[in-house]
């Protein structure tokens, strides 16, 4: 295209040149985005998720004893019926010392983990595994890899976001259990002295908190006229919840819940939020292919030049 042709064709030709120039510029920008900026964001994501993974303190085989042990005190108030000291080492509760003040009694029951036992917190283990899967996805596209389309970037971001969402959900959504499931879980067999038949405990993670719940039960008489309705699955059962186990019917008489914040879990949730935001921002930048985006922009230019 020469200058004389531009002057003889009037506004319409100027409009076409503007469209053509913008098209070239936009395609160049988009190629730069795919080649340079995408990898810059992927590097950011890797750095953030490595920090998250480091918080989970994955033990080296044979060196588990070198993992940092953290003690948490639950139920420090004088009003708390339950007090506990829990030792967390990575994903495992290695020690638990629980005192329960029995309702309507001055009796205090004391339980602790047997020395040969530790309890794996499945939520932490699952969350860590999802973070590592997200890192593997990012590592599969190193700096030498050239993304061809925005759709390819979106596909990777969707896969990473799925793993991060699952990791976050494992920490924010404790597993629901029925009372019989809790009563027959391996957790009940970890204590010395053994838990009495009218006491049950549960440990779980809720957001950044380590939670301990203790249930006190009473046996319903076989000839009771009370309407028996077994409780369903729940994270936290309320007083009055009923269930049947080994031909006996029970009712929850008291529920005691104590909790404390685990700082590194809070850090991890922040890292998840930052990572998900980075993924979404990158998806927003490449959400429309250059062609579709240019058609929209070209139409705007044409109408403005002909008006």
TrEMBL record:
Q: What is its main location?
A: cytoplasm
Check the record and name the Pfam families matching this protein: Rogdi_lz
Q: Which domain of life is it from?
A: Eukaryota
Compartments reported by the entry = Cytoplasmic vesicle, Secretory vesicle, Synaptic vesicle
Q: Tell me its family.
A: Belongs to the rogdi family.
Q: Name one GO cellular component term.
A: synaptic vesicle
Query: Which InterPro entries does the entry link to?
Result: RAVE2/Rogdi
What is the protein named? Answer: Protein rogdi homolog
């Amino acid at each position: 295209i020469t200058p004389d042709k531009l002057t003889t064709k009037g506004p319409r030709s100027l409009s076409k040149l503007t469209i053509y120039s913008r098209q070239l510029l936009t395609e160049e920008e988009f190629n730069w985005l795919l080649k340079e900026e995408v990898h810059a964001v992927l590097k950011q994501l890797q750095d953030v998720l490595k920090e998250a993974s480091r918080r989970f303190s994955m033990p080296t085989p044979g060196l588990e004893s070198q993992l940092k042990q953290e003690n948490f005190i639950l139920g420090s108030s004088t009003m708390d019926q339950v007090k506990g000291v829990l030792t967390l080492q990575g994903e495992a509760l290695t020690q638990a010392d629980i005192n329960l003040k029995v309702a309507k009694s001055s009796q205090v029951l004391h339980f602790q983990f047997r020395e040969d036992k530790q309890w794996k917190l499945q939520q932490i283990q699952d969350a860590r595994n999802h973070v590592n899967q997200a890192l593997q996805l990012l590592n599969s596209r190193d700096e030498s890899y050239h993304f061809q389309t925005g759709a390819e970037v979106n596909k990777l971001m969707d896969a990473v976001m799925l793993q991060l969402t699952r990791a976050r959900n494992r920490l924010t959504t404790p597993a629901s259990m029925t009372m019989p499931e809790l009563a027959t879980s391996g957790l009940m067999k970890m204590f010395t002295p053994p838990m009495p038949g009218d006491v049950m405990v549960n440990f779980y993670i809720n957001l950044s908190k380590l939670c301990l719940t203790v249930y006190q039960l009473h046996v319903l008489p076989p000839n009771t006229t009370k309407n028996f309705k077994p409780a369903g699955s729940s994270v936290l059962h309320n007083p009055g919840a009923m269930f049947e186990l080994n031909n006996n019917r029970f009712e929850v008489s008291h529920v005691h819940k104590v909790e404390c914040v685990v700082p590194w879990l809070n850090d991890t949730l922040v890292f998840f939020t930052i990572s998900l935001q980075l993924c979404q921002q990158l998806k927003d930048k490449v959400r429309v292919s250059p062609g579709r985006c240019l058609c929209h922009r070209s139409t705007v230019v044409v109408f403005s030049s002909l008006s």
